[in-house]
Amino acid sequence: MPASHATHIDLPALIRLQADARALKLPAARPVRSQQAGLQRSPRRGRGMAFAEVRQYQPGDDIRSIDWRVTARRQSPHTKLYEEERERPVLLLCDLGPSLFFASTGAYKQVRSAQLTGILSWLALWAGDQVGGIVFNGGDLTVQRPARRKKSVLQLLDTLAKLQKAPGAERATQTTFASPTADLNTALKEARRVAHTGSRIFVISDFLNITADSAQLLGALAKHNSVSALRVADPLELHLPDSGRFAVAGDEGPVWFDAGNPRFQQAWQDKVQHHEAALADCFRTSGVRPATVMTGDEPAFVLQSLLGPRGRIG
After folding, report:
1. pTM
2. In terms of DSSP bridges, do strands 175-182 and 138-147 run parallel, antiparallel, or are they unpaired?
């Protein structure tokens, strides 16, 4: 990654993420007559394109689905079951807020957040799904409804590039809400309005600013959709060095701290433990599946271990 992309990733670099997405070697969706195949399968069982399992024949089963080899081997009728594939909208919530303008290693959290969103958008497009996004940075919140067009993905990537800048510097072409509270909770509320029932939703954030309402909002979203949380974190947020003086950029200039100060270390760890417990409880009570990407990680490499068949996170 070029040095300039460690703090900000531009549109051409986001477009080039197609190569990283291809490297994941995600199995291609199987074509069906309606030409609608996507990242997710319907839970309904029937005569579809994707084989599911063989079970003992039950009255009412289609005799054309009898597996004669298994029937002969087990000396009792067995039938094949298939999963019907169908298109599902994919909605990507990408947090580019102030707390993501930071990294002690690798690339800024906002860059990792944009990269994850970009790779997932290409994967969803190639799988034949509709792709949409909600991008927010604390000042602006941009909504792009899911659509199955390459143009829509390019528009989403353009928004990712623009909203990494200072709020209000440039505006995306989609529906944009200028708000001083364009935060995670605001985005989750907007997602409930935009998402169709049965959508595949990825919430990509550092989740540093969760509130008591966050679990309820995530739970409401997960009630009728499949939701995964991709947490972007930096090692320094989780554990301070044992010693040394460090400076962190703040609103009014650099803020210095002494990592060797025992009281400061204890206060830091207390805060980290409190947040980690609150975040774990938030994900558990909301029924959202979490995964973590560190600033020192390459997003494509991490996604390779998280994505299963048809792009599902395990």
Report:
1. 0.75
2. antiparallel
